[in-house]
Amino acid sequence: MARKTGSKSEITGPRIREAALSLFAQQGYAAVSMRQIARAVGVQAGALYLYTSDKQSLLFDLMRDHMDGLLAASAAEPKAATPLDRLQQFTRFHILYHLERPDAVFVSYMELRNLNPENFAAIEGLRRQYEQTLEAILKDGLAEGVFRLPDTKLATLALIAMLTGVNTWYRQGGRLGPDKIASIYWDMVRKAVAA
Amino acid sequence: MARKTGSKSEITGPRIREAALSLFAQQGYAAVSMRQIARAVGVQAGALYLYTSDKQSLLFDLMRDHMDGLLAASAAEPKAATPLDRLQQFTRFHILYHLERPDAVFVSYMELRNLNPENFAAIEGLRRQYEQTLEAILKDGLAEGVFRLPDTKLATLALIAMLTGVNTWYRQGGRLGPDKIASIYWDMVRKAVAA
DNA sequence: GTCTATATGCTGATAGAC
DNA sequence: GTCTATCAGCATATAGAC
Q1: What does the DSSP 8-state code read for residue A176?
Q2: By CB count within 10 A, which of A12, B55, B146, B159 is most buried?
């Protein structure tokens, strides 16, 4: 193979991010030391700084990558025709996508206060962008008369909180699988916005 | 007055808990030092240990007090007659009670992973107890045929996540006051569980 | 690319003076 | 009841050898 002797840079970077994500999710950003992350990867602490400028950037990159991935995956969904179908698609997508990456979801919600102001604003912007995809569906359904909502903005936030809440109690191998959970939640979502 | 000279113990304890709650909510348990808490109260770090055995106990006491208060206030609510009225009462109570103490709610949700196993189990037990007050309402309504739910347990968790979510975006002086918000959420809750 | 060594400072908690 | 002083250890980040 053409790989140069001793060169591990192609995999060390991603492994640092994986280890950091897992540790941040388990113990929290402030409670995790750079030494812990280095130990999990199998390098010395000093080596981390070849891949990240500091601890704050490590956190920010994890959160931005998560939000970017969420937005890209959301945009890549096939476009359903009616507001009702689009809402069903959003509900299923949101639950399944979030259940597949619990650590990234957890860190992205819990560590917002550990971002510096600039980084916080960037993540908040991406989060609002995602919320607007749901709000657009609700507004369309409202205009067509298939939904009846007292307040579109509050309904958006209420539904997202409800759907993301699945991550707080879901455990693999539990009573219900992700597909079944998505169906049950869809039943409640559908009724909550019904005309 | 009969107060002894120099004795401030009657107020220092509560002030320590207030300062700790505020700082934990803003920066997170792991990121806050005992010296910071002491500074906020106006004493030296060593003096804190007259009122708490260690930092962990300080966190646990805050969370347990919050859950105890929540359960006591919930139990003290007047008992409505029908499942529908009880659900409406629960919805309003939950939103208003949580909006009044954002720091305690925030800490009680975000710092669970910083509790030691024993303390974690205690808080989890109280949380489940509170959830059961909602689940009992849903079960009664289901038995009477006024509600239709695909899954009582999931509906309980979904509704609580939705209601508690208000705390993540509510800001005083915003577009809507707590009463109006509670009304809007009640509309969605009512429909989500309707037969 | 990774290592060791190090600078500088903060951590939780305790002992003992007053 | 509060203070000062202190212990032993860990934090982030950098410098320079290999």
Answers
A1: S
A2: B159
